[in-house]
Structure of Cysteine hydrolase:
Amino acid sequence: MQEILVVVDMQNDFVTGPLGTPEARTILPKVAEKVKNFPGRVLFTRDTHEENYLESREGKALPVPHCIRGTRGWEICPELETLRKEEPVDKPTFGSTGLGEVLRAADQYGEKIGKITLVGVCTDICVISNALLLRAFLPEAEIAVDAACCAGVTPESHQTALRAMKACQITIENE
């Protein structure tokens, strides 16, 4: 059984840019250490918006341009970019169906996936969305979130998301 680590949206705009938080900066070295020591396949997601972001539904709800394709803010943080072995899965919205399809195909046509662990930002938006999406795509795999390697929009919303995921049979590690 293979193990997968999914690093969610650890991009400059979410760590040191306009949507960065002290908590995101704090987890960066922990995420880097986890990636370095992870024995299985590591996939990155990359929040990806176009120049017309402010005209999108998300842009109207969160009018802070971020992760615009091709900008420095869109790039994976340098501390993690050097560790990346595969092209990131670009995602235009919170949850990535592309990620689900890639992992379902790996499970069906390769070695079975026993466990998928998610780390990254934001716990309460993209981490929870992808954890629940992967639960639907791979219902028999264990889906886990390493709480010590995640950061939410606020510490409170991080905790709320962890509780919600636990209720949906997502394993919460290092709480």
Remarks:
- The radius of gyration is 15 Å.
- The first strand starts at residue 2 and ends at 8.
- Residues 46 and 90 are 5 Å apart (CA to CA).
- The mean pLDDT is 97.
